[in-house]
Amino acid sequence: MIRGTDTGQVLTIQNLEISFGALAVVKGVDLSVAPGEILALVGESGSGKSMIGRAIMGLLPGGGRVSGGRITFRNQEVTGALPSTQMRRLRGKEIGLIFQEPLSSLNPNMRIGEQMCEAMRAHTDLSEDKIRERAHEMLRQVRLDNPEQLMNRYPHEFSGGMRQRIMIASVMMLKPALLIADEPTTALDAVVQREVLDIIAEVARANGTAVILISHDLAVVAAYAAQIAVMEKGVLVEAGSARAVLGCPQHAYTQKLLAAAQLGAPEPVKGASGPPLLSVEGLQVEFSDKQMFGLFGKTVNRAVKDVSLSVQPGEFVGLAGESGSGKSTIGRAIGKLAPMKVGRVTFDGIDLANCSAANERRLRQRIRFVFQDPFSSLNPRMRVGRIVAEGLRHDRGLSAAERQARAIDMLEAVGLPRTMAARFPHALSGGQRQRVAIARALISRPDLIIADEPVSALDVTIQAQILMLLKSLQREFGFACLFISHDLHIVEQLCARLYVLHKGRVMEQGETAQLFAAPRHPYTRRLMSASPRLEQDAEGLQLAQTQPVLGRHDSDTTFYEDSGDNAGPYHLAETAPGHFVALRGTA
Amino acid sequence: MLTFILKRVLMSIPTFAIVAVIIFTLVRALPGDPALMMLGGNIDDEASLAQMRAQLGLDQPVPVQFLAWLREVFSGNLGTSIMTGQEVSSLLIQRFSVTATVVLLAIVSALLVSIPAGLLAAHRHNTRTDYAIVLLTILKLSMPGFWVGLMLLVLFGAILGWLPTVGFVSVSDDLGRGMMYLILPVTSLALSEIAVLTRMMRAGSLEVMGKDYITHARAKGLTERKVLWRHVFPNAFAPTLTMVGIMLAGLLAGAAVTETVFTLPGLGKLLVDSIYARDYPVLQGALLFIAAVYVLTNLAIDLTYSFFDPKVRLT
Prior knowledge:
The complex is a heterodimer of chains A (587) and B (315).
Chain A: E1 11-20, E2 23-33, E3 38-42, H1 49-57, E4 64-73, E5 76-77, H2 84-90, E6 95-98, H3 112-123, H4 128-141, H5 147-150, H6 160-172, E7 178-182, H7 190-207, E8 210-215, H8 218-222, E9 227-232, E10 235-241, H9 242-247, H10 252-262, E11 278-287, E12 301-311, E13 316-320, H11 327-334, E14 342-347, E15 350-351, H12 357-366, E16 367-370, H13 384-389, H14 400-413, H15 430-442, E17 448-452, H16 460-477, E18 480-485, H17 488-494, E19 497-502, E20 505-511, H18 512-517, H19 522-530, E21 534-537, E22 540-543, E23 570-576, E24 579-584
Parallel strand pairs in A: 3-8, 3-9, 6-7, 7-8, 13-18, 13-19, 16-17, 17-18
Antiparallel strand pairs in A: 1-2, 1-4, 4-5, 9-10, 11-12, 11-14, 14-15, 19-20, 20-24, 21-22, 23-24
Chain B: H1 2-29, H2 34-38, H3 46-56, H4 62-74, H5 88-123, H6 128-141, H7 145-159, H8 175-209, H9 212-219, H10 224-236, H11 238-252, H12 256-261, H13 267-276, H14 280-308
Helix pairs in contact in B: 1-14, 5-6, 5-8, 5-11, 5-14, 6-8, 7-8, 8-10, 8-11, 9-10, 11-14, 13-14
């Protein structure tokens, strides 16, 4: 991999070492990127991959420094040796940077247009009109309409996907030779993720920009990269062409990452027959929050329009859809955490809307939640043991010591050492925290777990572990689970039945295996192609589904799709036993 | 915006009603008798005392007095001072203009110092500059304000003799001399504010500097100065602004200690004097006026918020 500085590469990294104090977080890394080429830099969180991106920009976080090796950008060494004015001339103009969190990487206090234009103003002498014209052009390139209007808005008025596109437009305005995209889509859901990556690839190709795509998810970036480099604990363990790395992975760690991306054969958790444990009929939920979407002013947000579903005892049921489909709201409404407008929710024969306060408290022991973000769902000021034991506080028959003992047992059941009980959440990794959240939910031996994107915030390798854990815990404790996720392939792993949601309505429902074998609704197909997985074939690993998600839209009018203000009448039709699809018109 | 202001003004009506009742009863609850004070404080002549009470309307039952006062207040008449016979409203305006000049000058100069100092400390986090700024603010915070005022008086007034120590000349009468009298009180007030506001600004900036959009601003190749003023400052200023609001209302309502130390004829001084004199009309008027100052200052601060945070909608 080591090449000289005269090979026409945009970027060459030789024997790079990055340290925080005496601790080296990146050791002996060699990389190079050719003009216009896309390099995927893959590894788990903490592998040092982001630090490489920051080091190239000369923007290592406080305390970090390049302690060895050299970084050469276009035959010019940039390893911390450049004076700050020279480095600044490269930043933004020659090297662009896109971050993971589109929600926090735009200044909330500045209009979009202002943020887009200031870099160009700093680097060129173009007139204000020319700069704005270029901004419009870029916004159109990332498929955003009405650039003039959009540029006068503030970031909070846009969704995550739109913000990330604005970010891409803003960074690509100056046509940098190199774009560093640090987990650019990890915070987005599957459909939007694909769109954003498509746009990055497209815009980079149009401008001849080389891209370093940093990600923890090999499957997501594999489709775009010509070269793949895999990092583990600060060391580059494997690098080569995408075909070689995917087809014939040499290093054990790469194989492990690939295995995680494959997930393995689904093992759906089927439930008992008989009366359902949970049944939801005609659920509608509305929020009339004025500030929720500044774009629309004071409108009523009909989050859930008409949803009926059921869960059998011990069954895993999937609720899939992109953000805004209402899937989380349904979960919350079942737990009485969101206001139900119309509809009937019955749990074990008890109507949730008209049950006594005492009954409701008892039900809360039987329905428990696991949330997406283990970093904010655990109280940072409580020790892990107390967090888990808290679920038992209504159990008056138990002494504090007994509760604590049960909590420790439960920690062991979720695969954490007993000593964890004395720790605070901040000392735990994301995967460990999610295990704590699961232990907290299970301690009252609930009949139903509502798991709202329980693995979406985790690295792929950890995702697989948590899914395995849920499966084995289900065998042990026998709970049912309403599994909410935007990633159909994760849902496929565990769920016996599946509901696909779009804009507050069920688009398709049925047995997971059946639904995957023969998806009927165009939205379901779109959602499937949006979460790519690797599949084993004769030539080795290949990307399973690669058709682009942009510019699709089947013109089929028989299926119901809510694409505008007035989607017309809707009904579910049974196309095969137990398999329902949303159609236009009335039944 | 206009509906917001209107709504807030309407919402303040119940506030004023409650404040009026509390003021009136508290003032009456003060031990002492204004009529007695008027007559020299030491008199056995029951007849003239009763006559004086009747003249002041103090012989009526308290609720009747309250209604009478309220009627007068609504017609814009706050009464006349028992002590000096001056119109209460003109007295208030005259005294408030002194306080307002001192306080506003102090806040503005404090902001001019604390904003750059706070940003600088955060920018140079954990360096000597940062430590020095933090140390200075802690030093100032641990010294009582009146003591610093006295020391300033001793140093610049008594020892160096550069500035006057006692008295006051209105700025509107003689700008140059007026300013000379203002320098010490303004400096003394501003020093306390600088200490607090610099710390707020530093803490706010440190938090904002950890955000992705700041790294991104640097990644755009902006100069550090632009990053600090255009990206860090507007986002870091909100907590400082809240603090300014609290300070401003509190100080406008009467920087009594400062005014006493520097013998300024301000609102705080007036309040203290009228309490000693049991000057009911002045006391009531002043307290009502202070309530109005609070309401208006808070309104002004809320309006300013919308300027610093586009997410704040004034509805």
